[in-house]
Amino acid sequence: MIRQTIVFALVLLSVLAAAEQPPSSAVKAEMAAQQPAIEEHLRVEDAVRFALEHNPSVKSAAYVVDAQRHKVPQAKSLPDPTVSVGWMGNSRPFSVMEGDPSSYRSVSAMQMLPFPGKLRLKGEMASKEVEVAQADYEGVRRRIASEVKAAYYEYFYFDKALETTRRNKDLLVKLSKISEARYRVGKAMQPDVLKSQTEISMLLQRLTMLEQQRETAQARLNMLMGREPESPLPPAADVAPLEVALDLEQLYQLAQRTDPMLARETRMLERNQIAVAMAKKEYRPDLSIGYMYQQRPMMMDMKGFTFTVNVPIFYKSKQREAVRQAQQEVMAAQQSRDSRINELRFEVKQQYLAAKAAKSLLDLYSKAVVPQSSLALESSMSAYQVGSSDFLTMLSNFSTLLNYETEYYRQVADYQIALANIETLIGVDLTNVVIAGEAVKQ
Questions:
Q1: Which phi-psi region, left, alpha or beta, contains residue 78 (left: φ > 0; alpha: ψ -120 to 50)?
Q2: Which of 109, 156, 201, 342 has the most Cβ atoms closer than 10 angstroms to its Cβ?
């Protein structure tokens, strides 16, 4: 779109012919081995998919979910039974004293049976903790996807900023040569030549900074994708700004339905509510059943059973306080959930405003500022060639156009980053969904 606004004079000077170099065969081989979809250009969807498959944070969160699942059968299981052996009457192991009826050998086993309902509640608490881990996992996936998109659009911006700056540097070199030629024939002044050379040096400085920033953006994108920071990447594919009509109230509703952090707080609230019921169950005694077999010298063997219950006589300092603790944790979880709702609405509003502002600036640059700057440069170049305008005016128009072209791509990146952050909050891919009017169409 911007190239269509570049004036005919720029085309004649051959500054729009700079082409991006394709990645080397080694880069293509590496990327193809890991992700065949990546070829000459890196697409944002490919980067996100690769990151979700290889990022260590995503893998770690998945392992945590699996680990929590293994806790559920443990929580629902009975305590391990105990088995004991013993003897009485002689210090030698398993020996008895002949003729002493009090001497014996024995073996016993005991099983503790929790009060009915306790194991079920423990299993429900463990299941809720699995759901909490799943919400954390989804949150990590969304965060990584959002960070990858943000890093990708930064990478895209620096690619375009470098391309624009190099193109304009070539133009400035040609303009400098024109001013030198005019100076040699007495149609231009020496300060024009010196000023053009100064501007070329400033553009070289700018290129150096942009190259360093591009390398940093590439390293960050590699890191998020689970690759070495120095790994080569193809250039970013062109980004077409999404045309999405955002309805703030619908964004609020979608966010509250799908936000992983809010889901986590809800699951924690439910888990703590079960913990209250579990704490109240602790008022009820558990039952232990034991069996004993005794072998006595010169007497009949003896068998017996024991039944044991714990008596919660210290309930005032234990069970009652445990119930109060669990109730306070429920209240804390409720407040934490309400706080997350407020934070979520703020984050949605913040990203909504950022996207709206970036889109307005994007339209302004593409439809007015850049075309007008191009016309101003075209006019000053024509006037300079016939001697009716000075070189500094043309150079000023040149610098203005360069800044506005670069700023256009900055706004493209900022707009796409804001949309990516909104996608993280609402759990909806805005490339496939239109949010406007009365419904969300997918």
A1: beta
A2: 156
Interhelix angle for 44-54 vs 118-184, to 10°? 140
- Greatest pairwise CA separation for the chain in angstroms: 136
Say what percent of the chain tops pLDDT 70.
84
Question: The tokens 């953006």 sit on which residue?
Answer: 217
Length of the chain counted residue by residue: 442
Q: Which two tokens stand for residue 400?
A: 């203005």
Query: Which residues, 6+ apart, have CB-to-CB distance to 358 below 8 Å?
Result: 411, 414, 415, 418
The C-alpha atoms of residue 169 and residue 166 are separated, in whole angstroms, by 5
Structure confidence by residue, pLDDT tens digits, 340-397 = 999 999 999 999 999 999 999 988 988 888 888 888 888 877 777 666 667 777 778 8
Instruction: Answer for the pair 122, 75: CB distance below 8 angstroms, yes or no.
Output: yes
| Contact present, 402 and 165 (Cβ < 8 Å) | yes
Whole-prediction pTM value? 0.79
As a whole number of angstroms, the distance between CA 260 and CA 273 comes to 20
CB 195, CB 391: distance < 8 Å: yes
Which amino acid is located at 204 in the chain?
L
Region 278-299: what's the mean pLDDT? Answer: 91
Alpha carbon distance 5, 405 (integer Å): 10
The answer to whether residue 210 scores a pLDDT higher than 60 is yes
Is the sign of the CA dihedral 359, 18, 163, 148 positive or negative? positive
Please state, for a pLDDT cut of 90, what percent of the chain lies above it. 56
